[in-house]
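Appendix B, Record 12. Input sequence as logged:
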Amino acid sequence: MSTNQQFLKGSLSVIILRLLEEQERMYGYEITQKVKALTAGQMNVTEGALYPALHKLEAEGLLTTETQVVEGRARKYYSLTKDGHTEAAGRITELAVMLENLQQLLKGGATSLKPAV
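Logged structural output:
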């Protein structure tokens, strides 16, 4: 598994929450394509990783679903709940702080690390 794929697996729930925060509602394939487009193909979300993450977020009460028939096929749309919006903001902030700290460590500046949120 590549480093990008390992990182993606660990941060997939945050990525999903962020995309749904921006788009309001999306279906699974749309999420995979958006990640691919935004990362110029550098990160690919597989169905095997995406759907368990979506189901976990739904079980946590952060997502709601709505099924709609599009061109004769049922399509399941995911949206953030009120709690989902709150949790998205917190998780995005946590990940941003972690990434800043990681950048500092990689630059060799461990003395300027930010405290965890």
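The helical segments are 3-23, 28-38, 47-59, 82-107.
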